[in-house]
Amino acid sequence: MNAPIIELADIRKTYNEGTTVAAEVLHGVNITLRAGEFACLIGPSGSGKSTLLNLIGLLERPSAGSYLLKSRAIQQASDDERTRARLDTLGFVFQFHHLLPAFSALENVMLPGLMRDGAFSRQQRTNAQQLLKAVGLADAMHKPPNELSGGMQQRVAIARALALSPDLVLADEPTGNLDTHTADEVFALMRDFNATRGTAFLLVTHDPRLAARCDRVIQLRDGTVVGDAAQQRSG
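Now predict its structure.
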């Protein structure tokens, strides 16, 4: 069995703690994600999916419970330690690509390396070029985002998420702003990187077609995991 990347045990999240309007939005979540998995997180609006993804992505801290990232207790780590752990371990893809408009596609893919190392390097450039070729953008790497289609911009975002060879990519509705054909192409790219590089993915989606093509479906409702099962992938 592959080693765990994240281990969440009885994770709870309360906003406005200690006030009369305190609201607990996650109620004892237990999830383990292992190297090489391709899982999706589904649930209705307001179920806590975004909060859970933010906690896994070290953008927020849980109010209670245990979070191990590659066997290291991370919830009480300093902000600097969490930032380093995020850069070393996690990649992010969002519904909206969040590319910097003043940077070329190539420079956008190199940004995580700049954040980690404080400067662009030749190795970062070579790696970014290879990633852009892998997502079919060899001829567009020097173009700014406003000269790329929505699907091309999301391909750049996927390449950027993989720039530092993360163990796990967190993808929050990465196809939600795309037409069906382009969404299928973007999803296929993520599946390909999962198969060829062993990168684990946790995908939040409202698209049942895409959920049916994941290897594992985690269902969240009212801040609680109500289903977590492997499935036979269709398509």
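The two ends are 25 Å apart (CA to CA).
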